[in-house]
Amino acid sequence: MSGPGMSSMGRRRSFGDLTYGLVIGGIALLAVTIIVAPVIIVLMTSFTEGRALKFPPQGFSLEWYQQLFDPVKSRQIHRTAGNSLTIAAWSTLFGVVLATLASLGIGRNRSRLARVADSFFMSPLVLPGITFGLAALVYFSVLGFRPSIDLMIAGHLIVTMPFILRTTTASLSQLDPALLDSSQSLGASWFYTLRRVTLPLIAPGIAAGAFLAFMASIDNVPVSLFLSNARTDTLPIRMWGMMESTLDVRVAAVSGVLIASAFVLMLIMEWTVGLTRRMRD
Amino acid sequence: MRFRQLREWQLALPLALAFTALFLAPLLLLVGVSFYNDDKISQPGFASWLKFYGDPFNYKVIGDTLLLGVKTVCTTVLIGYPLALVYLDLSARLQKVLLFIIVMPLLLSVVVRTFAWIVVLGHEGVVNSVLMSLGVISEPLKLLQTELGLVISLTQIEMPLMLLPLISVMSRLDPNLRDASAALGASRWRTLFTVTLPLSMPGLVAGCLLVFASSTTAFISQTVIGGVRLIYLPLVIWQQSLVVYHWPLAAVASLSLVVSVLSVVAALSWVGRRSGGYIHG
Amino acid sequence: MFNRRSLLAGASALGGASLLPGLAHAKGGLVATTYPGTWEDAYRSIVVPMLKKKDDIDLEMAPLFAMDQIGKAKAARGAPPFDVFVLDPGPRIVGIEGGIFEKFDGKKLSNLSKIPEGFTDEWGVHVSAQVVGIAYNPKKLPAPKGWTDLLKDPWVSRLGLTGFQTTFGTSSIIEISKQFGGSLTNVDPALVELKKVLPKIAAVGLPAAMPGLFQQGQCDVMYTNTQTVATLKGKGVDIEFVKPESGAISFFTTMHIAKGTAETANAYKYLDLVVGREVQESLMKPPYNFLPVNKEVPLAPDLPMKSLDEMKSYVIHDWAKINPLRAAWIEKFNKEMAK
Question: Which residue range is the domain that position A231 belongs to?
Answer without folding.
Answer: 63-280
